[in-house]
Amino acid sequence: MTPVTGPIAAHPSRAGRELVEALEEARERTLALVASLSTADLERVHSPLMSPLVWDLAHIAAYEDLWLVHRYGERPLLREDLAATYDAFETPRAVRGDIELLGAAQAREYLDEIRTRTLEVIDERGVGDGELHELVIRHEHQHNETMFQTLQLASLRDYELADRRDSPPSPDPAFTGLEMIEVPPGPCTLGAPAEGFAYDNERPRHRTDVRGYQIGCTPITNATYLSFVEGGGYERREWWSAEGWAWKEQYDITRPDAWTADLAAEWRLGRLSPLHPDRPVVHVSWFEADAFARAHGARLPTEREWEKAATWDQESGMARAYPWGSEHPVPGRHANLDQLGCGTAPVGAYPEGASPCGCLGLIGDVWEWTASAFDGYAGFVAHPYREYSEVFFGEDYRVLRGGSWATRARVATPTFRNWDYPQRRQLFAGLRIARDL
Ligand SMILES: [Fe+2]
Q1: Were both Cys, which of 26, 100, 144, 276 would link to 140 (CB 3.0–4.6 Å)?
Q2: Is the pLDDT of residue 193 over 80?
Q3: Measured in angstroms, how far is the CA atom of residue 406 from the centroid of ligand 1?
Q4: What's the 49 CA to ligand 1 centre distance in angstroms?
Q5: How many A from CA of 227 to the centre of ligand 1?
Q6: What is the spatial distance between Cα 56 and Cα 52, in angstroms, rounded to a whole number?
Q7: Rounded distance, CA 282 to CA 343, Å?
Q8: pLDDT per residue over 141-157, tens digit each?
Q9: What pLDDT shows up at residue 11?
Q10: Cα 141 to averaged position of ligand 1 atoms, centre (Å)
Q11: What global pTM score does this model have?
């Protein structure tokens, strides 16, 4: 990689320096993630749901070229001929394995070449307001999580990524996921503030009234979910939606995606791990999460309920930036984030991450399915392009909140909205239940 030289190195703005460091750090993580993979494993389609990993690599480069070199730097694209192949919308996942892609070595070279150009542009003209650089950093972070999903589905026996954390802390007392917290009725503020970086679908920030409800103190644990499975959870028609039941029957779904048939262990990135009773259930679809909730006389929280429980400070009458306050997430202190342990932690393990109403584990560990379909808030304006989120609005997708252990800390915010189809199980997703008061 070309070192940053010239004006930015001699007189760098603080924001510029921080963004350059973040770009470099993001790249280090991306490359570390694939460092132990063979060329064949990088280029193979491991699951029809996911891109070959080599597509992610070149797509990260193409996105950076488009936004930081072409749009921001006003230079021509380095590889105009690759633009369509690596545009996520023009080349959807289902076809990425059938078309000609850059090989692993070429993709790495492409990443390097584009980064050199990016740094040249920053050298020439600084980072402006930094918004596009932030967009590109977060984009790479988000692809890191997508790549972990691919690795989880690939179940590569020899996959190596240093586990950088000792065993996660054990909460005391232990939780099951069925302990409930009451949130009284009343107004709250939802969505991202106008200042600072946020995605278009998080804005505008708005006031709303939410009826009183109960919400789980933590996500549902493996032990609690196991009781559901053993108690006929996948056989009792009355607990399932018509669509969920049809899906379950068609694919003969009888347990979470990563669990072994004897219900004693789960696959984690190619390694078999005993089913830890106190860790959150993960790799369940929205349909399963919904059935679990119904079986417990509950339901999934709406997005509004989830976000109010995460941020609304009843005493100050203001929304916090994070459940615990305004401090940016410190992985291992506030939450299980940043791929630290390459897996989940016991629910409730990070009491410092508690929200104003006392909910734990809202950020990190597992994404949480909500009852809500994906849509724009009133006053939504697409930015910086319609294909980021607007084209996905509608009844097809359900929203997930909170991020997972595989989410980078920079992108883990309580206003961030993820979305996927209700049958999907590749996400590091679990659930938290809710009830009307
Ligand atoms: Fe992307």
Answers
A1: 26
A2: yes
A3: 16
A4: 15
A5: 38
A6: 7
A7: 10
A8: 999 999 999 999 998 88
A9: 52
A10: 10
A11: 0.94
